Amino acid sequence: MVEAVCRGEAEFALVDEPPGLWLLYRFSHKVSWGRANFNIHLVPERQRADPVLFTAPDQGFQGLVTVLDADTALVRGLRLIGLTPEFSLKLAELIQAQALAPWRGKEEDDRQVREVARRFPAPGPMLARVVCRMTSVSNERSPPNG
Hints:
Helix content is about 25%, strand content about 30%. It is α+β, with helices and mostly antiparallel strands. It has one domain (about 1-135). Mean pLDDT is about 85; it is low at about 140-145. It starts with a helix and ends in a 10-residue tail after the last strand. The protein has helices at about 1-5, 85-100, 105-120; strands spanning about 10-15, 20-25, 35-40, 60-70, 75-80, 130-135. The strands form two sheets. It has a four-stranded antiparallel beta sheet with strand order 3-2-1-6, sandwiched between helices. The radius of gyration is 16 Å and the shape is globular.
C-alpha cells in the first residue's frame, strides 16, 4: 500500500455535494477510492487564505500526502502531488463559492455530511457527480523504509 501511494498513479476528483466539497482519491488501481470532505467554514478564519489569489492559468496547487502506520503513527511514506492548473482553478472556485454561502453551523454541517454519507455509502458512486478529475504519475517522494 505504501508503494502504491508513494509511487503509483494517483487519481483525484472533485465533487460539489453540499454542505461540503468532496475530494475523491485513489492511488493505483490496487487501492479503492477514498474520500475527504472539506468545508471552509470549519477552518479558523485567521487560517483561511483566498484560494483564488493563488491560481493563474498556468499555476497549480501542491499537496503533500503522508502515509502513517496505523499502529505506531510513524511516517511510512511521503508524496508531493502537483495539481493541474485546471484542477486547482476548479478547487479554488468551489472553495470561493463555499465561503460565500451562508454558514448554518457545525451541527447542521454534520447532519448534512451524514446525509451525504447515507446517500453515498462508498466513494465510488460519487464519481457520477464529479465536476473535475485529474491523474498524476509523479513520484516526488519514495517510502523512507523501502
